[in-house]
């Protein structure tokens, strides 16, 4: 019996008695209603939010078919609202001003702060007034390049309050990447911070931002203001490592701090403005600008598989309804929960499930500045215990990284508050799923493997706690409003069991509306391949019970001797071996098979890479998938080339597999030096 049918995890966790959706029957009814009558379904939900003016035109209008004209999606035509008002004022007016919005937890465990809804609203109004005074108006783009601090949330909501458009650039990007994104968006203001400690490392944000601003001005982009949060004087610097080696931070302390221990920044009085000075002089009241529901809220750049990044643009009304509803149902959010999403706000997961989704629900969240392994490998679990977190959301890459340290760092903490554990970002292999469930969740939680994309705005395929019996590794079923189809190469629909392109037949409220400044690219990337469908670029399989298994990007698919294989499938078999912590599989051209498998494996602590292990791993894949899937090459990988959001850059691994050093652009990797190391470790016979 295949693994997936052998293991069905009942949703009988702590949430089952009170969940918003408590049975598969209820899920099916709600899902059917959301497709049959979107206006009734989302119209009912929209009543919970404040709309200054009601819908005047069509509730939903769209075209998904390039042969019938321009692609467009419009929800709630003519209605007016403000998402910042719905995130903050609505709750404060309802008497929840004193409720905690965020528990801020610093990089160092000694640094912590509490922010209520009332305080957040005042701070947001002050910053909104600072922006207005600089002439920022409706439709203007504001770039944000910040660490995970409360001012980041304040900045994005202040931008939204005055009808401007935020473009957040993850604080790990280089000056070049920041400049590219600012140029593309023609941003007139930048908001940043002096610097941040991430684990023992210093990231000198202002210095990088200064370089980016130079690049922008060389290309005639006039930036009116660089608003700078002073953060370094409020936080604890890393201590020297206990083993006597100088922590990376010690070097930074010498170069970036003066004799009195103050952090040094270069200052250009023509553009630089200290946040604390400007904000303390500003009024804490600011009327929201009532916006059309289809006005842009933000753009967020995602790397296209080739070429320049795309500014994925979302609009206000649909995104608001969708992030609020997915947050409520996928995590089964209830008043009193403490929610912790480890994603950085610089990624879509942070936009939708650190800021907007939780605040729209009036939730209390943990906002974490640091990394999972600093100052020790139990940091996540320590935070969960400290704040009694009930809903936790992280990525498979973090889970696998922490699994490497075994169960002991988890077991040290009381995690009994946990009820729902979420996963996002890539397919989660059953090994990691089960560890998450058994070790972190003590076999008494709901796991939600949420499939979605920057482009989808929110979860599109996900189990619902309390309703969906889960199969480890499957994202299960479509969310409300989502109409899933699988297509073969010719665009024929695969009904029932089968594998193909994962596409959606119609828009849900949170789908992106365009690529900023390039609607044609939007149409070609997502709609040209199959007329009438939004194409995710991922492959998926539907099993005999109707469960959806996302197999990874289509370009990660390989064809070995005519058998279609997904990299995820192979990787998950390799990771089942106790000596393997993480694995990545790519295709390498093969004269007889067409393509063969070339695998990279990272070992768990204390294991050595030897012939015996290679033979065992080949056998493992053979026995899990079939003889045709047996890898031709397996090589040791001290680390994998990952982007800063944790995605394996398989394009680079494919080059290594064929011995080609023409790696292309690897600047977006978290650690570009790993590429050279991997090249050197290629097996001789390859
Ligand atoms: C939210 C986010 C999107 C791509 C997507 C897919 C992969 C995300 C997944 C998953 C399998 C999941 N992906 N979640 N694959 N199961 N639960 O990650 O957005 O950065 O745009 O990436 O990530 O390949 O197409 P984004």
Care to describe what's here?
This protein has 686 residues and is α/β, with parallel strands linked by helices. Helices cover 32% and strands 21% of the residues. The chain has 21 helices and 30 strands. The chain has an eight-stranded mixed beta sheet, with helices on both faces. A seven-stranded mixed beta sheet has the order 5-4-17-16-18-19-20, with helices on both faces. Strands 21-22-24-25 form a four-stranded antiparallel beta sheet. Helix 12 (348-360) links the parallel strand 16 and strand 17 (364-368). Helix 2 (24-36) packs across helix 3 (38-46), helix 4 (83-96) runs antiparallel to helix 5 (117-133) and helix 14 crosses helix 16 (430-440). The longest helix is centred in the first third of the chain and has 17 residues, at 117-133. It starts with a helix and ends in a 6-residue tail after the last helix. The protein binds ligand 6R9. Ligand 6R9 is lined by residues 302, 348-349, 424-427, 449-454, 475, 536-538, 550, 552-553, 645. Ligand 6R9 binds next to helix 12, strand 24 and strand 25. It is an enzyme of class 6 (ligase). Residues 569-647 form the AMP-binding enzyme C-terminal domain. One of its GO terms (molecular function) is acetate-CoA ligase activity.
Q: Which structural category fits the helices and strands?
A: alpha/beta
Bound molecules: ligand 6R9
What spatial form do the alpha-carbon principal axes imply?
A: globular
Q: Helical percent range?
A: 25-40%
Residue runs with pLDDT of under 50 for 5 or more positions: 1-6
**What's the count of strands?**
30
Biggest β-sheet: count, sense, barrel? Answer: 8 strands, mixed
Number of helical segments? Answer: 21
Kindly report the average pLDDT value: 92
Beta-strand content bin: 15-25%
How do the strands of the widest beta sheet line up side by side?
12-11-8-6-7-14-15-23
| Radius of gyration, CA atoms, in whole angstroms | 25 Å
Terminal Cα span: 36 Å
Family: Belongs to the ATP-dependent AMP-binding enzyme family.
Domain Acetyl-coenzyme A synthetase N-terminal: 27-87
GO molecular function: acetate-CoA ligase activity; ATP binding
EC number: 6.2.1.1
């Amino acid at each position: 019996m295949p693994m997936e049918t052998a293991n069905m995890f009942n949703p009988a966790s702590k949430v089952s008695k009170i969940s918003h959706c408590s049975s598969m029957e209820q899920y099916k009814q709600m899902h059917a209603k959301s497709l049959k009558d979107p206006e009734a379904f989302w119209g009912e939900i929209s009543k919970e939010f404040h709309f200054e003016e009601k819908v005047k035109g069509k509730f939903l209008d769209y075209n998904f078919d390039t042969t019938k004209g321009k692609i467009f999606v419009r929800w709630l035509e003519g209605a007016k609202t403000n998402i910042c008002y719905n995130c903050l004022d609505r709750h404060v007016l309802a008497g929840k001003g004193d409720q905690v919005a965020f528990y801020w937890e610093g990089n160092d465990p000694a640094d912590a702060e509490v922010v209520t809804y009332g305080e957040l609203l005042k701070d947001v109004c002050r910053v909104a007034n600072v922006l207005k005074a600089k002439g920022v108006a409706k439709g203007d783009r504001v770039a944000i390049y910040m660490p995970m601090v409360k001012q980041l949330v304040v900045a994005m909501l202040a931008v939204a309050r005055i009808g401007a458009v935020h473009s957040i650039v993850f604080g790990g990007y280089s000056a070049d990447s920041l400049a590219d994104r600012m140029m593309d968006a023609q941003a007139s203001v930048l908001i940043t911070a002096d610097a941040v400690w991430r684990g023992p490392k210093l990231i000198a944000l202002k210095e990088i931002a200064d370089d980016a601003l130079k690049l922008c001005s060389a290309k005639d982009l006039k930036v009116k203001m660089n608003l700078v949060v002073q953060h370094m004087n409020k936080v604890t610097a890393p201590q020297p490592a206990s083993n006597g080696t100088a922590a990376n931070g010690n070097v930074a302390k010498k170069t970036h701090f003066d004799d009195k221990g103050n952090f040094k920044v270069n200052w250009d009085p023509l553009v630089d403005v200290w946040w604390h000075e400007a904000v303390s002089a500003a009024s804490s009241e600011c009327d929201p600008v009532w916006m059309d529901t289809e006005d842009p809220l933000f753009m967020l750049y995602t790397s296209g598989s080739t070429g320049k990044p795309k500014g994925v643009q979302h609009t206000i009304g649909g995104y608001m309804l969708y992030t609020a509803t997915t947050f409520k149902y996928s995590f089964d959010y209830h008043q009193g929960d403490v929610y912790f999403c480890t994603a950085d706000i610089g990624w879509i997961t942070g936009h939708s499930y650190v800021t907007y989704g939780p605040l729209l629900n009036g939730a209390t969240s943990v906002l974490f500045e640091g990394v999972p392994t600093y100052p020790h490998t139990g940091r996540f679990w320590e935070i969960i215990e400290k704040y009694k977190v009930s809903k936790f959301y992280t990525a498979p890459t973090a889970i696998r990284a922490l699994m490497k340290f075994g169960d002991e760092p988890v077991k040290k903490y009381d995690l009994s508050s946990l009820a729902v554990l979420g996963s996002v970002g890539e397919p989660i292999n059953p090994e990691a799923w089960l560890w998450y469930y058994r070790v972190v969740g003590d076999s008494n939680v709901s796991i939600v493997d949420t499939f979605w994309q920057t482009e989808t705005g929110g979860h599109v395929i996900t189990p619902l706690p309390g309703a969906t019996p889960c199969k480890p590794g499957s994202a299960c079923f479509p969310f409300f409003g989502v109409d899933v189809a699988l297509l073969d190469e010719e665009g024929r629909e695969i009904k029932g069991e089968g594998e193909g392109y994962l596409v959606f037949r119609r828009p849900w409220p949170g789908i992106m509306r365009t690529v900023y400044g390039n609607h044609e690219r939007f149409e070609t990337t997502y709609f040209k391949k199959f007329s009438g469908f939004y194409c995710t670029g991922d492959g998926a399989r539907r099993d005999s019970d109707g469960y959806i298994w996302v197999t990874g990007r289509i370009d990660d698919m390989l064809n070995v001797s005519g058998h279609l294989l997904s990299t995820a499938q192979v990787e998950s078999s390799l990771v089942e071996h106790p000596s393997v912590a993480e694995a990545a599989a790519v295709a390498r051209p093969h004269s007889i098979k067409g393509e063969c498998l070339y695998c990279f494996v990272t070992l768990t602590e204390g294991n050595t890479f030897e012939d015996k292990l290679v033979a065992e791993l080949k056998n493992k894949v053979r026995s899990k998938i079939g003889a045709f899937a047996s890898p031709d090459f397996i090589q040791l990988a001290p680390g994998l080339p990952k982007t800063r959001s944790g995605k394996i850059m398989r394009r680079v691994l494919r080059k290594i597999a064929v011995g080609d050093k023409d790696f292309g652009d690897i600047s977006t990797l978290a650690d570009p030096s790993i590429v050279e190391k991997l090249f050197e470790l290629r097996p001789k016979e390859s």
